[in-house]
Amino acid sequence: MSQTTAHAPASSNTLRLWLSTAVVALLIIGTGMFQSWNLALVIVNMGLISAIMALGVNLQWGFAGLFNVGIMGFVALGGLATVLVSMPPVEEAWQVAGIQLISGLLMGVATIVVAIVAAQKIAKARTRNITVVAILVVGFVLYRALFDPAVGKIEAINPAQFGNIGGLNLPIILAWPVGGLFAAAAAWVIGKTALGLRSDYLAIATLGISEIIIAMLKNEDWLARGVKNVIGLPRPVAYEVDLQRDPGFAETAANLGIDVTTASTLYVKFSYAFLFTIVLVILLVLAQLALKSPWGRMMRAIRDNEVAAEAMGKNVTARHLQIFVLGSAICGIAGAMMTTLDGQLTPGSYQPLRFTFLIWVMVIVGGSGNNYGAVIGGFLIWFLWVQVEPLGNWLMQLITSGMEDGALKSHLLGSAAHMRLFTMGLVLLLVLRFSPRGLVPEN
Amino acid sequence: MDFLNAIVALANFVIIPATVYGSQLALGALGVTLIYGILRFSNFAHGDTMAFGTMVTILITWWFQSMGINFGILPTALLALPFGIAITSLFLLGTDRVVYKFYREKKSEPVIFVIVSLGVMFMMNGIVRFIIGTGDQRFADGERFIISTREFKAMTGLQEGLAIRFTQGITVVTAIIVVAALFYFLNRTRTGKSMRAFSDNEDLALLSGINPERVVMVTWIIVAGLATIAGVLYGLDKTFKPFTYFQLLLPIFASAIVGGLGNPLGAIAGGFVIAFSEVSVTYAFKKVLGYLLPESLEPDSLVQLLSTDYKFAVSFVILIIVLLVKPTGLFKGKSV
Q1: What residue ranges are annotated as transmembrane (chain B) (predicted)?
Q2: CATH class of the domain at A8-89+166-434
């Protein structure tokens, strides 16, 4: 390819990138001016988190063509990390049943490890199968015998307030990398089993693991209180109340001509936005460096022609596992950030349509294979997701305004909220059909 | 006597529910496996297709009920079923024409089809929630029990009761009829044979003059039928709730893969393997063991391997084991 033709699409991409960035910026500024700056900042903060999730998924899909439908699970693991890192430990729980709990968990892990080793070491098929099953059965019984009573004791401790083991009482920012590690570990297990088989298998395996992770979060009360939720997670930024009490802050707010309550909420949201932007920029720079490195070229070579890449001596499955773990880790980091922003872990609120499929819409719309595209897609789709609902309500009110009051009218008005699923599906299909390379295509 | 009681308890709480659930899963998995065999992609919209078909059937059932039409001791929904299937078929054919056909002609990669089916899933989900809402809907009417616990106890004099609900009986009978008809169609009729030929080797089928668009059309109609029937039976047996149907996707896919994707016989076997494992792993065996073991050995705990909240984990674990040990499934499916 000559220099000029190679240059042309890149520059048109740059143009598209600037244009779509401008559109997103306008949309957010518009929200600030016509609705409220508070809402605009709320959208920006979740937009930053969505952009990070989309970046992670783009790594898997855009670089390697891996189809992960378990994003929700990795995001939720990040949320779990915030609780386990930042909450104060429940001392009583550790005194009553700490050793028992840990030995139970170790027993479980040991059983699996021994079973795997046995499966690999014993050559004769029949002996192997019998041994592995025997190890698993005995291990499971021992595990339950140690684990169940410990859980019972822990969950009995003041269940209205605790009933869990608490956390490590460390700064909550530390939970972000830890969330990434949790997600990476889960991704490694899934990748190890399902990669190297047909592409749909990974999809189904990830779908399964995410449902199981959510079920675990909902039911293992000893871990993070299950559906009783953990509220009041510590914050990495200031509290509004403290700011309002601070005379210096009040004075600055008065000088800027904003009343102190509004100023404090805006300040807190700005602080979050600042932290999130740092993380996004770091990850984006790393992803860009990776994309341009020999490693990134190899990944795209594998994506575009697995057979040829394998013939060149590339270990396709191992590289896939690598990038799958990395991408999932980024989702885990984003998940921990989101729970930090919410200030609470509510396992009941994880919905696959919101946390898995919406991220997919972001990646596809933004432009798969382009990191900037994924970030723009994250912002844009999140903006739509937030704004389509009031828009849908308004539209439905317009449609039903001519109708007389009755069951149909109230049903239509009540169901308007569901239109956003429909709209997101429509956006996905339209982009795939008419602009499959997305807003900002791959260079 | 104790032994009989144990068997009855086992039948009541494990064997009958698992058979019923297995029939529902098998019908669902047959739909997934047919799409995989003919159109060559994993259809993520299948759960929501079931929800759509069931929703249409429920609406027609309500309409029938409001006009005073009923089916005697059987649920009215069975009368509404053919109409539900017809509308779902039209809907799926429309989706195929508007959405999938474009990618088929372009010969897109399977994973693109999967993503497209995600988009379709989103839209169907939106439509279903928009029309019928997100709540639980019960639409079973007619007689409730073929045999109730009290009747059974009076009849046999056993301590344990056995109840068979009408919906359970209907599920199994319908499933048998549908599967028999499907296999007759696939193995004996010309269209069915051309479908199998197309699934085995597309190029060869095209060479021998099989019209691919016709095969695809027939497939969608059959899938609409299977999905609607599976959905309605599940809804009659339990309740209809859109989100539950989305969640059924996992056990259904697990059934299809365990049996071997693309293999109809495998889908049925897979459905029962998943259903029986799910029910028996989450059942508390205390009662059964209590009858069987001498008093000194009777268990104190529930003897439940996993709590019912983790039933998805069961299909998942079986899926993983099959992927590790035999990726082509129990019956040789098409898989790499």
Answers
A1: 6-39, 51-73, 79-99, 111-132, 162-186, 215-236, 305-325
A2: mainly alpha
